[in-house]
Structure formats: structure tokens, C-alpha cells
């Protein structure tokens, strides 16, 4: 059995930025729901879905970069299992 992973919280400043971005994404998703309820044009809906996807991708990249910089590189050695986990996270974020 492997040891539990240490908790690595993000900084207060980054947490604020992430929450602002998530709230914006949440608003975009609610807007898409309204568009569907209002029977809006499919092209407009697809455009908004693409915007949500891009926003989530940008947020994922920011968090992955922060994880790599602040968590993986902050110690004296970099654990190959940590790198593999990061790569798995990045692959699933596509």
C-alpha cells in the first residue's frame, strides 16, 4: 500500500483567480441552457460550447502549470510517479 499523497493547496491568489474563472464558466453554461430552452440557433449554441471548452482548457493548463512549477519542482528531487500522474491529468484534460 502506498503512502498518502501530501496535501498541496494552491496559493490564495491563484485560488481567487480559479474561482473567478469557474464562476464565469458556470455563467456561460447557464447561458447555454437558456439558449437551448429558448430554441436559439444551433450555430450560436455550438459557438458558446466552444467558448466553454476553451475556458476549461485554459484553466486546466493554468492549474497543471502551477502543479508542475510549485509542487513538482519545489522539492530537491522530482518523483517520476508524480510526473506520470501529471501527464495522465494533462491527457485527460484534452
Q: What does this molecule look like?
A:
The chain is mainly alpha-helical and 94 residues long. Helix content is 74%, strand content 0%. It has three helices and no strands. It is elongated and about 55 Å long. The model has no long low-confidence stretch (mean pLDDT 84).
By DSSP, the count of extended strands is 0
In whole angstroms, how far apart are the ends?
30 Å
- Major β-sheet, in short? none
- Number of helical stretches of at least 4 residues: 3
Calculate the mean pLDDT score and round it: 84
The topology string of helices and strands comes to HHH
Query: Which structural class should the secondary elements be placed in?
Result: mainly alpha
Beta-strand proportion = under 5%
Layout of SSEs?
Elements: H1 12-37, H2 42-72, H3 80-92
Helix pairs in contact: 1-2, 2-3
Defining traits:
94 residues; mainly alpha; 3 helices; 0% strand
Structure in a nutshell:
This protein has 94 residues and is mostly helical. The protein has helices at residues 12-37, 42-72, 80-92. The longest helix is centred in the middle third of the chain and has 31 residues, at 42-72.
Amino acid at each position: 500500500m502506498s503512502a498518502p499523497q501530501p496535501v498541496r493547496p494552491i496559493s490564495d491568489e491563484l485560488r481567487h483567480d480559479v474561482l473567478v474563472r469557474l464562476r464565469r464558466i458556470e455563467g456561460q453554461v447557464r447561458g447555454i441552457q437558456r439558449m437551448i430552452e429558448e430554441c436559439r440557433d444551433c450555430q450560436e449554441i455550438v459557438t458558446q460550447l466552444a467558448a466553454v471548452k476553451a475556458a476549461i482548457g485554459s484553466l486546466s493548463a493554468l492549474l497543471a502549470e502551477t502543479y508542475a512549477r510549485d509542487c513538482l519542482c519545489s522539492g530537491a528531487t522530482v518523483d517520476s510517479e508524480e510526473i506520470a500522474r501529471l501527464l495522465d491529468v494533462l491527457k485527460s484534460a484534452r
